[in-house]
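Question (not urgent): is this output format expected?
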Amino acid sequence: MDEIKHISMEDFARLDRDKVTLLDLREPDQVLTGGFEGAINIPFSRIGRELEKLPRDKPVYVFCQEGAFSEEITEALQDWGLDACNVDGGWKAWQEWLRQAEPTVLDARGLKCPGPIVKMADTLRGMSAGQKLRIEATEDAFASDIAVWCERTGNKLLKLEVKPEHIEALVEKGNAVKPLPAAARNDKTFVVFSGDLDKTIAAFIMANGAAAMGRRVTMFFTFWGLNILRRPEKVPVVKGLVERMFGAMMPRGTHRLGLSRMNMGGLGARMIRGVMREKGVSSLEELIDSARAHGVRLVACQMSMDIMGIRKEELLDGVELGGVSTFLGSGEQSDISLFI
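Got this back:
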């Protein structure tokens, strides 16, 4: 036994597993509790009959539940001419190592959507199930994106903390990093791209109707639709010249939105509002208040905010900041997604 190759858990954790073959000797019921992605499972009782499954172009790293069987098979594989190595302690030792190991730290500060999510996914891809990753990000939308991303990919969000200087998340990689099937729900998702008064009224009418039916509703505001969420009063924030120009040219708040047709310098919008009052139709502002009171989720696209020079302080109270994962996570659980 002293002649066979061994590898400790510390060295195994740093191993490039794309360059080796992992041989899992555990029984099928044991494999169900977890395993390494890409490992070949040949139970100890069948190894003699299924040896041809092992490729010979890579070193073979052998593990079992606790390490005893893997030593025996490693020696046999070496006798058969394979480059084999025993993973000391087996799966049980790996689980213990995971519990004690410090998480890998990923610095995503300064990245904008979808940068933090992409960088995190790339890092997790090279890790094993059960390993932990601590991510530090400064984009406000990351707090929402990371929660949705973990929910939809089968990873586990162990901790999410919004600190004054950054957001910190602790993620444990799941057994399979792939999208989960959409839940059988009747959620609704609206992408509000337009900042036109008539289209905004239609969007909030539908949102209120869906909320009244007990549906979960998410409204994702991007580009010109962000103006809907701006406070009507001027908010003192520091901006550059181009950002100030954008702010001056765009309508601030719902009362300054124009119509998509026949606006006539704002006269059309005032006429529509007058007709709505006359007909007893709730105003846009009342529709927004009602939607918020009934739990409609209002999400502002932070990437669009950065481009257009809109600050979080300029938005209405209760508006969330989100990115592409926030929208896609909501859309995957919806039976209707509308682009307005």
